[in-house]
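hey so i finally got around to running the thing on that chain from the lab meeting. sorry it took forever, my laptop kept dying and i had to restart like 3 times. anyway pasting the input first so we r on the same page abt which one it is
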Amino acid sequence: MKLARAIIIGGIVALLSLVVLGHLEGDNALALNPSARDCDNNSIIYCGAITPDELATKYAQNKTGDLPALYSHYGISGAMINAKSQKQGYVTKAGDVYYNGKVVAKKAISVGRQYNTGSWAVGIGGHTYYERYTGTHYAAGVDAIAVHIWFDANGKFVAAVMYSCGNALIATPVEVPTVACDTLTVEKISRTQYRLTGKAHATGGATINAIHYYAFDSASKPVVGVAGPDGQSTSTVTMTIPNPGTYKLQAIALTSRGNTSSDGCTKSVIVDQEPCPIPGKENLPKNSPQCVEDKPGVSITKMVNNAEHQTVLVGSIYEYEISVKNTGNVPLKDVIVTDTAPAGVAFISASSGEIKGGTWRNTLPTLAVGESRSFTIAAKIAAYKAGVIKNIACVETPTVPSGNPDDCDDATVETVRMIDVCDLRSHTIVRINEKDFDGDHMTKDISQCEDLKVCRLSDKTVVTIKKSQFDAQLYSKTLNDCVPKPKPTPPVTPPTVELPHTGIIDTFGSSLGLGSLVGASYYYVASRRSVR
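ok and heres what got predicted. didnt touch it at all, straight out
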């Protein structure tokens, strides 16, 4: 039975030894007593806590009821224990605390529940405990005991808890060599220049070699670098960043423990675009489209029936077209467009604006850069007027400093005198522009195109022709010439009574009768000629 117990106890000791060795992270395990678990009344945690998990479990169980208050007194919080982020080291009989082979604290003092020679009492949370220098009561042959160790953010020793008994342990931290970049201040000198001041510090024998300053672009690429003086932990430099953009400025301390920076040594700046050099536009970047010298301008164009010159009919309505454009690089204000009708021209209506006293006027409150506005004026000429009639429209705005008006343009018309003529080719009356009159085949005597009834001599027929077609060889204006004349009836000769021939008297009578017949024939012929 005793043999079996010895075997069991030996196995437990061996197992615990392996556990202890597994949590020392390379420290000198041979200097420890890996089997040590103090299961006595001096232990803060009965039989101790070897691993971070075991310590967190027993802390949560808090069987003695005083663990939170006691550990807190020595700077060990529940959060620190539950985080299980402590390191594993050991404390020697001489009172040195080791981690990773280096002394991190000296003059270690532990606390227990019982008084031993060399101890002194301390009250915590209504309970009395006893502090002592470590090593005062180390067992024979034990030179070091494994401990849980906590460090602050700078690697400085805070406190420890012994594996074997859970007793809290404090010690004087060994100054840890530290370096840090503390602050960076930035002062803007000009658009591209900055004054940078960096501060860094070193402790525990570490040193600051220099502070270097960098500007990083939006792609985290360093674009400018300036080195501060060697051997100074505080320095000021001037940095020029030529190109516009957003940059991260960072001070980096070059130290005996490597390069270091921090959020406090990082700043952000915006290098503005180069300002516009034109007075009054300095708030604009130089590459802005608006960074140009103000050059206001306005133009006007005028047409008549979509042409520069037109011929119009008297009394007919025609249109003037007027277009105004902002040709400058600034908006125009109070743009006034005017057009006065020349003599003989009457303005009838307009697409906008007002016609008063023969003058059309239209005011535009604003006209944007590049904007055009168009208008029409209906007009007519009441009576013929010789020559070309010029009509001028003008534009004026106070935004354009020179000229009054600022621009003008004109369009011209001329009138047409229409006349009726007789076209001798077609023998019709036509209306033409007087300037188109051609005497070769036209006559202003329109009666020449009037109808005329005549007697056509060729066939003695009455026909209707144009006066201009009359030819005396072909026609007769005497219509009776076409009336046929009746043929005269020859006289009836009574039968001749044969008288007895009595000599010369008979002969004379015969001659007288023949002469009468010849005379009658002559007068008949003469009468026919007079009828023709």
